[in-house]
């Protein structure tokens, strides 16, 4: 997956579709600004609105060196997750943890491309809690020294734990 510069995307603009690995949700990290890319063809206008405007929750669960970014948007969606490992990104950007203090709140960008043509249909900026921010970046930095079997570890953890178990054991916050 290539890195999308979300600042350059505009509502109802078509991004480069080669960026999307598959239908679903992807977490893209770089510098100190995470992006949650929601690419789900067939979303209704109400579902796009729920993602972009309803109350939302986010969290981080880490096991075996794999980060699971947890999310829930309003009542339209149940808890779900996307697995993240730095080696899944083609263009890994340096993480500058020195810019992140114990009270830092990451600003998560949520980009919704719900149509079959990949046009951006919604965009939201959400502040994450300091605890989620710290856990997120520390989990990412820990991945650099791990072996390349991340795909197997993602599957092992995902099968062994349900999303609700991850939510119970993870660090969770309500999006601000």
What does this structure look like?
Strands 1-2-6-7 form a four-stranded mixed β-sheet, with helices on one face. A four-stranded antiparallel β-sheet has the order 5-4-3-8, sandwiched between helices. A hairpin with a 2-residue loop joins strand 3 (56-63) and strand 4 (66-73). The protein contains four helices and eight strands, in the order E-E-H-E-E-E-E-E-H-H-H-E. The protein has 176 residues and is an alpha+beta fold.
Name the helix and strand elements from N-terminus to C-terminus, one letter apiece. EEHEEEEEHHHE
Sequence of strands across the biggest β-sheet: 1-2-6-7
Number of helices: 4
How much of the residues is beta strand, in percent?
25-35%
Fraction of residues in helix: 10-25%
Radius of gyration: 15 Å
Tell me the total number of β-strands.
Answer: 8
Which spans of ≥5 residues are poorly predicted at pLDDT below 50? 1-21
Largest sheet: 4 strands, mixed
What would the principal axes of the Cα set say about the shape? Answer: globular
Q: Classify the secondary structure makeup into a structural class.
A: alpha+beta
Measured distance between first and last alpha carbons? 28 Å
Can you give the mean pLDDT?
78
């Amino acid at each position: 997956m290539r890195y999308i510069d979300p600042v350059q995307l505009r509502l109802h603009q078509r991004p480069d579709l080669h960026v999307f690995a598959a239908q679903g949700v992807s977490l893209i990290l770089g510098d100190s600004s995470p992006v949650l890319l929601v690419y789900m063809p067939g979303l209704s206008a109400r579902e796009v609105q729920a993602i972009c405007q309803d109350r939302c929750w986010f969290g981080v669960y880490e096991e075996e060196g794999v980060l699971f970014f947890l999310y829930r948007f309003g009542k339209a969606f149940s808890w779900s997750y996307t697995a993240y490992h730095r080696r899944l990104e083609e263009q890994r950007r340096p993480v500058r943890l020195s810019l992140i203090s114990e009270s830092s709140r990451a600003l998560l960008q949520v980009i919704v491309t719900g149509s079959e043509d990949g046009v951006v249909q919604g965009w939201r900026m959400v502040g994450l809690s300091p605890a989620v921010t710290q856990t997120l970046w520390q989990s990412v930095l820990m991945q650099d020294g791990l072996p390349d079997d991340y795909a197997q570890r993602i599957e092992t953890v995902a099968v062994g734990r349900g999303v609700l178990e991850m939510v119970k054991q993870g660090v969770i916050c309500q999006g601000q």
